[in-house]
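ingest -> validate -> predict -> emit
validate: passed (alphabet ok, no gaps, 155 aa)
predict: started
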Amino acid sequence: TRYKCKYYIGNVEKDNLNGDGWMHAIRHPGAETLQHLKKLRLSRPYFDFRPAQEMVLNSEDDFLFGRISAARGKDYAFIYTPYGREIKVDCSQLEAQFIRASWFNPRTGEEKLICQIPPRKAIFVPETQGKGQDWVLILDGGKRKWKEIGQIIHE
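emit:
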């Protein structure tokens, strides 16, 4: 049996007129993005993860460009920026002697190391901005090995 359904791409409602249902929607590029984000989330300790909006110094809501959102564990943080907005961060809240920063591209699943800094305030700018250019800033304390991506401007 085939079922008709509605699904969303961004905030645009799509009608599934041909009856492919969720099988069609799951092959949409947005579904792939969620797979990449799940792998990223599961790559760090799971149970100490909590919201950390206090780390973001420019987290105010922006009607046109969304809200920068942050969550963290003991020695790591993920900060999501829609539209590739710059992120102002207080890295001193992580328990570490140095912070390793990298950009994660949720569209491709690639991660690129951008710098290693002492725990202090910094401004991070993704390599692309605009519609469809969301990024996750990964901040890791400690001595972990990661892949590479991006550019940074220090405050």
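The chain has a mean pLDDT of 79.
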